[in-house]
Amino acid sequence: MGSVASRLRVTDEGGVARIEFIDRNILDEANIQQIGEEIGRIIDSQDAPKLLISFKDVEHLSSAALGTLITLTNRIKAKGGALKLADINSQIYEVFVITKLNKLFDIHETADEALSSFE
C-alpha cells in the first residue's frame, strides 16, 4: 500500500494548523474521505487543536465535504479546540447560509483575520 499524495497544504502558524486545499473542486468522495482523515490526524495529534481552514482556491464543494466539516468541528470541540474557516468564495458561502452552517462555523473574511481571532 503506497502513500497517497496529500490533498492539503498544512503550515503551523504559531500553534494554529493552517490548512489549504490543493484541489479547486472538492467533490470526489474518495478525496473528501482522504481530506477528512488527514485533518483528523492533525486533530488527534493535539490536546486542544486550533485549526484554520482556508478555502482560498476552492471553487466547488460537495455536500459530502460539508458533512465532513461538521464531523471535524465536533471532534475539535470535544477536545476543547477551535476551528475557523476563511477565504470562502461567495458561491460556496451561499451554501453555508442556505444550510445555516454559517451559524455553526466561525467564518472569517480572510485567513489573517481568522488567525488573529485565535488570540
Throw out a few tags for this protein.
119 residues, alpha/beta, Transcription Regulator spoIIAA, 5-stranded mixed β-sheet, two-stranded parallel sheet, 7 strands
Order of helices and strands: EEEHEEHEHHEH
- Unreliable sequence segments: none
Structural class category: alpha/beta
Report the strand count. Answer: 7
| Topology-level CATH name | Transcription Regulator spoIIAA
Describe the oligomeric state of these chains in a short phrase.
Answer: single chain
Round the Cα radius of gyration to an integer and report it: 13 Å
Total helices: the number is 5
How many independent structural domains? 1
- C-alpha termini separation: 41 Å
CATH class: Alpha Beta
CATH superfamily: STAS domain
Shape: globular
Main β-sheet, in a few words? 5 strands, mixed
Average of per-residue pLDDT values: 94
Strand order in the sheet with the most strands: 1-2-4-6-7
Helix content: 40-55%
Question: Proportion of β residues?
Answer: 15-25%
Q: Any guess at the CATH architecture?
A: 2-Layer Sandwich
Could you describe the 3D structure shown?
- There is one protein chain.
- By secondary structure, the protein is α/β, with parallel strands linked by helices.
- It has 5 helices and 7 strands.
- It has one domain (8-113): 2-Layer Sandwich (Transcription Regulator spoIIAA).
- Helices cover 43% and strands 24% of the residues.
- The strands form 2 sheets. A 5-stranded mixed beta sheet has the order 1-2-4-6-7. A two-stranded parallel sheet has the order 3-5.
- A hairpin with a 2-residue loop joins strand 1 (8-13) and strand 2 (16-21).
- Helix 1 packs parallel to helix 2.
- The mean pLDDT is 94.
